[in-house]
Amino acid sequence: MDKSLGHEFIEIINNLRKLTHKHHHKNKIHSGEFMILGAIRGVIEDKREHHIEEPGIKVGELSELIHSTKPATSKMLKQVEEKGYIERVADKKDKRVVYIRLSDSGEIIMKDAMKRMGDFANRTIQRLGEEDTKELIRLMKKFYQALSEELNEKHTDNECHMNDESNINTKEHNDRKEI
Questions:
Q1: CA distance 152 to 52
Q2: pLDDT tens digits for range 67-98
Q3: Which of 115, 117, 40, 53 has the alpha carbon at shortest distance from 81?
Q4: What does the domain layout of the chain look like in residue ranges?
Q5: How far out from the chain centre does Cα 174 lie?
Q6: Can you give the pLDDT at residue 27?
Q7: Are 38 and 48 in contact (CB under 8 A)?
Q8: Which terminus of the chain, N or C, has less C-beta within 10 A?
Q9: Are 28 and 109 in contact (CB under 8 A)?
Q10: Which fold is adopted by the domain 3-128?
């Protein structure tokens, strides 16, 4: 592969990251907060649609959903709770079970964020034009697929390598036991 093409690829990814970080302070909520509030909101909407009578989502379920550890999820929840965006609700039958749901303030901040995001998308699409936007979406889907495959291959390679090391260590251990 042409080194300049790889360099240009990394450079544009880095520039996009810098650009979003640079304008991050203009948002009322941080991207992590938006992500966790959006996940909570989405699960609650799904439960309502499927007539599941639960007042929110459990921390463990949320952790799985956002692919995060329980301690990291709890830390983020504490931050958004301090801002008044979520509330904790004890289960009526089992008080040990606690659900998380958006507060009225959380609902308002999410509606505002979704509106601003939609407006931003529309303005960007206007600048790019419909055809270029469709092409960008097609390429981003292809990029996502390639990245996903690459990361899964790396993960699988690491697991195989770890299994090889485990097998070697087990063989060495068995050899030592024979002596």
A1: 34
A2: 999 999 999 999 999 999 999 999 888 889 99
A3: 40
A4: 3-128, 130-179
A5: 43
A6: 61
A7: no
A8: C
A9: yes
A10: Arc Repressor Mutant, subunit A (1.10.10)
